[in-house]
# Entry
Amino acid sequence: MNPYRVSEPARHLSSLRPEPADPIPMRRALIPLALLALLPACGPVPVRASRAWHGATPIPATYQFGRLTADLPPGTRVETAIIAARATLERQGHAIQSAEATPQEGKLVALAPPSLGYDKLTLRAAYEGQGTVLRIDIWPQNENRARAALETILATLRL
# Structure
């Protein structure tokens, strides 16, 4: 008999730890968490803003996420922009659902005739720092129609 041979295997500290009853529930909990962590990487690619110049006084307008935003020249009042937009849209056959304006902000909602290819136009004007900012939302979203609406409004304003 070999005096150095141990008949019983040595107990390690790991063998003293209690074994989890069932490791599968932990995996079931970790899989959704891992998928949730990866979800932002699978999201849509951000839409790049497209910018173009409009009107006679070149006014930059940016279209992004279905909204056309234009910074009107200094001196253009919010009320003037809303009145011009209302007159322009009524000439084109829109039914004005609501129109309101204060010196700080204004909003106009117009329902389009079927011939124009969209249902609703919402125009917001607000005085922000240097001047008036005009925002046009068309439903369903269409950049070309939003830009055409801006062009006609700027023509009415003689900008």
Notes: The chain has a mean pLDDT of 84.
